[in-house]
Amino acid sequence: MRRTDNIVILTGAGISAESGLGTFRDEGGLWAQHRIEDVATPEAFARDPALVHRFYNARREQAHAAAPNAAHEALARLQAAWRGLITLVTQNVDGLHEKAGASVIHMHGELSRALCAACDHRWDAPLVMETGEVCPACGIGAARPDVVWFGEFPYHMERIADALQSCDLFAAIGTSGQVYPAAGFVEEARMAGAATIELNLRDSDTSFAFDEHIIGPASKTVPAWVDRLLA
Ligand code: APR
Is the pTM of this model over 0.90? Predict the structure, then answer.
């Protein structure tokens, strides 16, 4: 890698696991404890907003109390060293990349933000969102977590597609490769001629598509990988 190369990095729940935040599909993960159709769809929110708020309030309080780990910090260090060349995209909504000082594209939204279900107004969410709160802008729509639910479109897709088109290296860190469009980013990067690397505890559903694999916990593998890049 040269210091003129563009790198796109995609992170998933695995990068925050060692900060104490649960992943979705590992043993005992969030989707083993809750049904997606009960807590992570627009229909779920329309049917039982209190249940959905309880699910996200618990995650928001955990994320608020959590600290970034060495993996988040290493990516912030890489971004600072290679100004403007590192596009960091996360599927996570926990805010740990920002806490580590990185700038990040949130394709699945953020727990720290609220969204109006009617007018798309966004504002900083309170730690605990109450059922029945309405939008401070239009006064009509229900206040919901600004998190992209199943069946909704991820955010910033054009900006992400542009970055993938012009990247020299694509890295996926701590993601199972089971949810699209993020799981398809590696193919887009390959078609643009990028080298690809996966950092994970184990193989993912898209491991076949990566040139290189580094197996191990992110708090160990990501700092070592960044040191290698910056050497
Ligand atoms: N270090 C590195 N990787 C890890 C670690 C760790 N300490 N712990 C777990 N992993 C890996 C797992 O092996 C798995 O591949 O992190 C991945 C977590 O996968 P998921 O739980 O499926 O999380 P993610 O890929 O981020 O899910 C994508 O699905 O439910 C939706 O919107 C939700 O953003 C989420 C999306």
Answer: yes
Q: What would the pLDDT profile of 94-133 be if each residue is shown by its tens digit? A: 999 999 999 999 999 999 999 999 999 999 999 999 999 9
Do 97 and 211 reside in the same domain of the chain? Answer: yes
- Residue nearest to ligand 1 atom 17, measured at CA: 175
Residue 59 maps to a domain: yes
Separation of alpha carbons 161 and 87, rounded Å: 11
Here the ipTM equals 0.99
Where residue 209 sits, what CATH number does that domain have?
3.40.50.1220
Which atom, in ligand 1's list, is nearest to the CA of 31? 30
- Please give the distance, rounded to the nearest whole angstrom, from the Cα atom of residue 90 to the centre of ligand 1: 11
By annotation, the residues acting in catalysis are: 108
Instruction: Show the domain range for 122.
Output: 34-65+114-147
Q: Report the separation in Å between the CA atom of 141 and the middle of ligand 1, taken as the mean of its atom positions.
A: 32
Phi, psi (deg, nearest 5) at residue 9: -120, 125
Among the atoms of ligand 1, which is closest to the Cα of residue 148? Answer: 32
The CB density around residue 158, as the number of other CB atoms within 10 Å, is 7
30 within 8 A of 36, measured Cβ to Cβ:
no
